[in-house]
Structure formats: C-alpha cells, structure tokens
Amino acid sequence: MKAPIHKSRIEDDIRIRAYYSKYIFNSHFLIFLTIAGGVFLYSLLGMLSAMEPNIYLDIIAALLMSIVLLPKYRSLLKEADVLFLPPYEKYMKTYFSYMNRYSFWLSAYLPITGLIISLLLLRVGHPGWVMVLFVGMSVLLYIFAFLIRRDAVNTPMDRNSVILMLILIHFISLFSILVNPLFILLGLLLIGGLYFLVQKKQHKNLDWPKIIDHEASMKQKYYQYVSMFTNVRLSSKQYKRRKYFDALLKQPPPGRFNKNHMYEYLFRRTFLRDDDLPMIILRLLMIFSIVIIWVDAPVLSVIVLLFALYVIVLQMSQLYTAQAYLLWPKVWPVEREYIQESYIRFSHKVILMIALLLAVIFIFLHPVYFYIAAVFPLWGFALNSYFSKNVYKKERLLSD
After folding, report:
1. 239 strand-pairing partners
2. Quick one: which of 313, 311, 301, 294 has its CA closest to 375?
3. Where do the TM regions start and end (predicted)?
C-alpha cells in the first residue's frame, strides 16, 4: 500500500538531509567543530569568570536569542501540487498538521544552542529565577514565531517585514525581562498583537502559488547552505550580473582569444556572475575571521585558517565540474587539457588572493608570528593542486 503523501514527503526530505549531512559532518569538519567548540566554551567561561555584571551581556543574550528564535515553515509542497491539490484543500488538515510538527522541530537545534550560550552570559548578574523566566519567554516566543511565520505565508504581508518585526519584538521582550521581570507583559502584548494582525490578514482560502513559492525558496536556501560544504545535485544553478565586478571582466585583447587563454576568462566570468559561489566564499571568510578574532590564540588561528582554505578550495572545485561539461566545450570544442590548465591557472590565482588575505588578517592579529603566515599560500597551492588532479582523475576514468 502506498504511504500517505505527508509521510512520503517527510521521509524524502529526511533522506535528502541525511544524504548531505554525511558529507557536511565528515571527519575533518567534526574535528574542527570539536576544537572550535571547546576553545569557544573555554574562552567564554574564562572571560565571564572575570567580568562584572553589565548591560552589554544582557544586550548580547537578548540579541542572540532574537535572531535564533525564527523557526522556518516547510510545507514540502511541489510545483505540480497547484494543479491537483486545491480542490482537496478542506481534506488536507492531516497533511498540514504533520508538516507543522515536522517544521516546528526542524529548526529547534538552533534556539537550543543559542539558549545555552545566552544562559552562560546571564549567569553574570542574574538570579536563577530570572534565567528560568528568560527560558520560558524564549520558548513562548519560539512557538508564536512559528505560528506567525507559518500563517504569514498565506497573507499579503512581505516575508522580510515579518522577520524584522519578529526580531524586534523578540529583542524588546527578552531584554525588558532582564531589566525588570514585570515587563514580561510588554512582550506578551507585542507578540500577541503581531499574531492577531497576521490572523486578520490571512486569506480565506490558501494562496497555493505563494505557499509553493515559499517552499521552493526554503528548499533553495537549504541547498545554498549545503553547497558551502559539498556539491548539490538538486539545486538550480543561477547567475546574475554584479556591476561592481565588471571592472574584473574586461574583454581580453585579440591576442588572447585562443584556446590557451580564453577558457581562463570564461571561468573568471562564471565565478564572478555565479549567484552563490562568490557570496558563499565571502561568508566563509567572515565566519572564520570572527572565529580567529574570538579565540585570539596563534596556534588555533593557524588551524582555523588552514581549515578555511580547505573548505574554500572545495568550493572552487565545484566551478570546474559545473561548467567544464556544459555549453562551452560544445560551442568551442578543444582538447580537455586546455580546459583543465585554464582552470588550474584561474583557481590558483583566486586561492592565492584568498590565502594572502587570510595571511594579512593573521599578521594583523599576531604580528609577532608574522613568518607563520607564509604557510597559507603554500597550503592553498598544495590543496588546489591535489583536488584539481582528483577531479581530472575521475574525468579520465569516465571518459573511455
């Protein structure tokens, strides 16, 4: 007997997440997470043990929770559903009930992690009963935030506006409790008011196209997150022009319009106009920079930055596999060696610039150990050479 539609779709989504999770949380990344988590916890506890109560810790705790208390709603609807399911809308209460429970727990790990960090911060200067009140209010805000984000999909309200209002209400509600516990009434009034506003604006029937577009957007965001660590087969590749990159895409001189140089230009053009890759690398650089600023230890900073180069090189290798088999070789057929050599030259230049940037950051934080920064370009070159050869090895095995 065929499984109910809600069960099969939840199982499919779990299967996809499990498939990509085994590549994201590989042995290298787990080692990095263990080291980074241990250093973060050790440095945080050491810092808090020497701190006096102050309002800045309360602001940080409230701001952190206001950001992580944003559960995502996943309907798991597909594009074809808009043709077949609307006539059965009133019979789909069971389907949406299961999706509500699945979505509610899907993002629960993030507020739990944020709550642990916030409670560590609130240990400085707050009694236990205030911390319990803070936890209770956080749970209540999480429940209301889920209901509001779910119902707002079926309203004319803009999604980003709803998110900004939730963040603001979360911050005011949690921070006001830390100032005076009696202000809990203010938080309840604000979140309750937004909830009733969303309820009032809901359409009488489901706006199927908007709900399906919302699901497609949520799915694409998940794939963008996964693509920071591994190739994503199911995501739709998109490109867009960023005018501030046009200066890096000047047309090559006539003498370089040949098989030796043209593919390097095409790889550069694809990289700069890729919808995800440049922004993913920028986010990775920001995340790892924040980590090394936080840990403020030379040895750990080196380990973190070496791992950062490893992740970025993995990202760059996707560029070759995504483009070397598509339109270019068909429009301008050349021997594979020319495409491979062009990618090697281009990727080495990009990795060298990123490695030099990381080296500058390291020298700025630890000027006494400036000579260690020389390892970053060498590590980036070795990694990029290895992964490039690995890609070409697979290509040769499949080409006969």
Report:
1. 274
2. 301
3. 23-43, 55-73, 102-122, 128-148, 160-176, 182-198, 277-295, 301-322, 343-363, 369-387
